[in-house]
Amino acid sequence: MSKIQQINRRDFVKLFGLASSGIVLGCNISSDKKGFIPQTEGAFIPNLFVQIQKDGKIILLASRSEMGQGIRTSLASAIADELEADWNYITVKQAVGDAKYGNQNTDGSRSVRTLLLPMRKMGATVKAMLLSAAAKKWEVATTVCKAENHYVINTNNNDKIFFGDLVDEASKVPVPAEETIQLKKVKDFKYIGKTLKSIDLKDFTHGTATYGIDIRIPNMKFAAIARCPVTFGTVKKFTKNKAVKVAGVAGVFELPRLIPPTGKFFGMLGGIAVVADNTWAAFQGKKVLDIEWNYGDNYSFDTEKFKEKLTKRIAKKGKLVPGGSGNVNTAFKNSKNIVEATYHVPFLLHAPMEVPNATAWFQGDTIEVWAPVQDPQTARAEIAHFFDVKLENVIVNVTFLGGGFGRKSKSDFVIEAVAISKKINAPVQVVWTREDDVQHSFYHATSAQYLKGSIDENGKVTGWLQRVGFPSIVSSFKPLSDYASGFELGMGFTNTPYKITNFRLESVKAEANLRIGWMRSVVNIQSGFGNNCFIDELAFSAQKDPVEMHLDLIGKDQIAKGKSKHPYNSKRMKDVLKNTARKAGWGKKMPKNHGLGVANHYSFYSYVATIVEVSVKNERLKIENIWTTIDCGLALNKDNIINQLEGAAIFGMSIALYGKISVKEGAVAQHNFYDYRMTRMKDAPNIHVDIIDKMHEAPTGVGEPGVPVMAPAICNAIFNATGKRVRSLPISDLGLV
Amino acid sequence: MEKSLSINGKSYTVKVQEEMPLLWAIRDVVGLTGTKFGCGVSQCGACSVLVDGLLTKSCVIPVSFAFGKEIFTIEGTSDNLEFLRKAWNDGNVPQCGYCQSGQLIAATSLLDSIEKPTDEDIETAMSGNICRCGTYTRIRKAIHKAVALKNESR
Is A684 touching B (CB cutoff 8 A)? Predict the structure, then answer.
């Protein structure tokens, strides 16, 4: 945060869409440019806003998208704490997409990590101004004033003034310099590190939260799009006779594909658009379209064949990834005990409960959209690019997201809505069917890994060779990117917590024949799976306890050197593991057919360990219990973190048990929740989450780090229960679920 | 064709195709958007409503089925729904919130038929509703809590 300034009234009214009086503060926060997707162009002069009204109500602007991770509550609580505000007076408004709010790209589990300090400083700045205002009113020194629960108190005589009654005075106070701002001590926190329930609970339980799909604008139309079953196929010819006869259908036309420029944006697939008076008519019209497609090159894509191809490639030497150590060949030669294994994870889908959708209104030189987007600034820039309007004339309103998981970082569905609105000259809502979502996503890439390890006579791992291949996310921005990129390998392959003297990582070619995206915890899904399953195999081969094997590999207490704000600390990794083992009763005698499996993973700068208890009876798998421990540094909103970890466990279960997108003749074979299955209530185990509190450390990621441990812990537990290794996901392929 | 739909005790005159699924009549024609679209094939329960008290996946039931019947949606209120809302609140259940309309309606239906459901009852009644955020354990606890709140209020 470099500068806090008062916002002029016109700007403010524009931002909040209301004309009430109050203090309004903008605050420049440090930019956060380290995303792994291309950043929008333009200056990073971010502003975030606080408003205090005369009735004491405080309105805070949320710059990040709410998709279930509780960010609206978390960020607001940090401001409110430093401000000494009464939580009951707080409301949160969602910011539109605009670079002045800083990076709004809501992914990478980084909102709290990057915004906690700026938010606290903002709250503290406002508090300082209120204290000055009260001091002036009382004609006392500011130092005798303190703020408490929405009042400023004169400590000399215990007089007090309500925040709302200080608005006029405080508005005249100059914004104090940042270096004079005092932050609270950890022991004085009122909200930070405690539990605040979601500020949106009432709307969530009354059906009044507005998601993208709930936007209604007078005279709007609804649209569905038929897209080619094969990625990037095009329309050869189509007949609309049947579709236009469907009651309520207003128009049928071709929507050409929009190809994004290299390095940024997502474009849209194109296809045939059906515009109608209601969503159902659009869906019906789409169903009866007769379309002949040019399938194009991806027609030959088949996931079974691709799996074989990748498996062959990882059997041979690949491209060396920098960062290895020692010499694995020597280690293998000198070790009596060699373990080899190959692991596979299929293509995976986010499937947020709210399908991709967007509402757009093209009005010539201005375009307004309402959409459930994780990255409103990219959507905005992309609209400006494709529809040739000035960026400032594009308004991207961010609705609630009915789940995101990375899918809604990609703005293709927004571009579709704008393209249709432009064509029909009216506001329109594009709604994807669930089948559209399953078959035309930006998928989590399938992967294959080969691992070879050596163990010496003391049970110590002496060598580790890992070869990995998966289509790269970069392929969605730069065609022909056939190898995993550095940032992808940095998610659990090149930054493992393990200290192995002889370590070698190789990458093999993997072409992309689907649109590749990122999904909750991203590459950590496959790295966490391979690493943890293999360590379990090494432990078994060495006749060592798996938890002991993990602890050995993590090694002695050590804090990584370098400039990272969140240097890796091996002790914290060991501590989450030990805590989980203790809570799960690791080592206890298990009932017949029951087994425990362990996994740990370091991702998004957070430390997570999980133990899963399964039972396998009559060839049926049941997940009985899950124990997870996270160390995410300062734990901002405790119960929200627990909820995230519980959710991550269920999300990880869905991946492990059911997750599989397969492709035949270029087309995705799954359709809906009946063949792309989800964990349901009947499968949901008891989930026990522990947070190791580090109130004096910086906060790290929460939304994603609970996912990567789940699949390996489940598979290791199956081995413990049955003696059978699951090396290829999903488990449903084995008929156990 | 103009017909009348009774939703949460209020009558709405609608002009709809008889075969239009009830979900879209509620959302796009009547304009009550609390009931959600999730799959369109009765797989996820986001569209759950009660029709004459019966739990119904509105995405696959034609609107004509509901003519002359009483439809209950998340915008409505009932004793059981209010106890559930309170319990959902106490348990900080929702994450993204999108499926929770359907979850609450399914849970209302459960409490309407079973006064004190067991875990097994809950699993049976609630397994038609997907929560991608994974709030199942909280939903399970909240249903038990709603029963407790109801008993306390007596």
Answer: yes
Q: What local confidence, expressed as pLDDT, does residue A49 receive?
A: 67
Protein fold of A303-349+443-734: Aldehyde Oxidoreductase; domain 4 (3.30.365)
| pLDDT value at A714 more than 60 | yes
Length of chain A: 737
- Rounded Cα gap, residues A302 and A281, in angstroms: 34
| Interface size between A and B, measured as CB pairs under 8 A | 177
Q: What is the pLDDT of residues A279-304, one digit of tens each?
A: 999 999 999 999 999 999 999 999 99
Mean pLDDT of chain A: 92
CB A221 within 8 A of CB A428: yes
Q: How far is CA A397 from the centre of its chain?
A: 20
Find chain A residues with C-beta within 8 A of B139's C-beta: 681
How many angstroms separate the CA atoms of A690 and A105, rounded?
Answer: 28
> Would A3-206 and A212-296+356-431 be classified into the same CATH topology?
yes
Residue type, position A58, single letter: I
Domain A212-296+356-431 has CATH 3.30.70.260: no
Q: Would you state the structure tokens that stand for residue B71, as one six-digit string?
A: 């439809």
One-letter amino acid at A77 equals S
Contacts with A672 from chain B: Cβ below 8 Å: 39-41, 43
Q: Tell me the C-alpha distance between A517 and A497, whole Å.
A: 26
Query: In whole angstroms, what is the distance from residue A679 CA to residue A659 CA?
Result: 10
B44·A673 Cβ contact <8 A: yes
Q: What is the ipTM of this complex?
A: 0.98
* Residue A599 β-bridge partners: A610
Greatest Cα-to-Cα distance within chain B, rounded to the nearest angstrom = 48
How does pLDDT run across A651-677, given as a tens digit for each residue?
999 999 999 999 999 999 999 999 999
- Contact in structure between A265 and A383 (CB atoms under 8 Å): no
CA angle A605, A610, A613 (to 5 degrees): 170
What's the rounded Cα separation, in Å, for the pair B152 and A375?
Answer: 46
CATH number of B2-72: 3.10.20.30
CATH classification (class only), B79-152: mainly alpha
Q: Measure the CA–CA gap between A275 and B128, rounded to whole angstroms.
A: 31
Smallest Cβ–Cβ distance between B95 and the set A203, A355, A647 belongs to A647
Annotation: CATH topology of A3-206: Aldehyde Oxidoreductase; domain 4 (3.30.365)
Query: Which of B15, B95, B104 to mutate to test binding with chain A, by most A CBs within 10 Å of its CB?
Result: B95
Residue B119: Cβ within 10 Å count: 11
Domain assignments of chain A as residue spans, ordered by start = 3-206, 212-296+356-431, 303-349+443-734
Is A437's Cβ below 8 Å from some Cβ in B?
no
Tokens 């929770």 map to which residue? B100
Please say whether the beta carbons of A63 and A101 come within 8 A: yes
Distance from CA of A152 to the nearest CA of B (A): 31
Asked if the Cβ–Cβ distance from B20 to A280 is below 8 Å, we say yes
Which residue bears the tokens 């806003």?
Answer: A49
SS3 A466: strand
Alpha-carbon separation of residue A197 from A89, A337, A637, A641 (angstroms): 14, 52, 9, 11
Task: Give the integer Cα–Cα distance in Å for B75 and A521.
Answer: 35
